[in-house]
């Protein structure tokens, strides 16, 4: 879920699932609905307009759902933490289980974090 990112992290997530890094070879896949997800991968600092949707998205996911903060903005607010419309990092809105730092994080680091969650 993009909670207010610049889309740099989304580009690297797409690369993580592309042919070079191929996260799907570990049984990891992206799904369109939180109802089909085991984990919620959140990018960007949480903006005021996205705090509610983030909470509702987590509520829609089956339990136990893992929340992964991906990128510096999601982990600690990054460069925009003092912005007027910023609530804060993901941990200020929902409990976070894993953190993937970087601006943006490298696809290898994203795959490694997803593998830690999946136990592979």
Describe the protein.
By secondary structure, the chain is an alpha/beta fold. It is built from 4 helices and 5 strands. The protein has one domain: Rossmann fold (3-Layer(aba) Sandwich). The model has no long low-confidence stretch (mean pLDDT 93).
Key phrases:
single chain, 120 residues, alpha/beta, Rossmann fold, 30% helix, globular
Secondary-structure map:
Blueprint: H1 8-16, E1 39-43, E2 46-47, H2 51-60, E3 66-70, H3 72-76, E4 86-88, E5 98-100, H4 107-118
Parallel strand pairs: 1-3, 3-5
Antiparallel strand pairs: 2-4
Helix pairs in contact: 1-4
Number of strands: 5
List the secondary-structure elements in sequence, H or E: HEEHEHEEH
Number of domain modules? 1
Query: For the residues shown, what is the average pLDDT?
Result: 93
Strand ordering within the main sheet: 1-3-5
Alpha-beta content class: alpha/beta
Poorly predicted ranges: none
Which fold name is given in CATH as the topology?
Rossmann fold
**CATH top level?**
Alpha Beta
CATH architecture classification = 3-Layer(aba) Sandwich
Distance between the termini: 23 Å
Radius of gyration, taken over Cα atoms and rounded to an integer in Å? 13 Å
The largest pleated sheet is described as: 3 strands, parallel
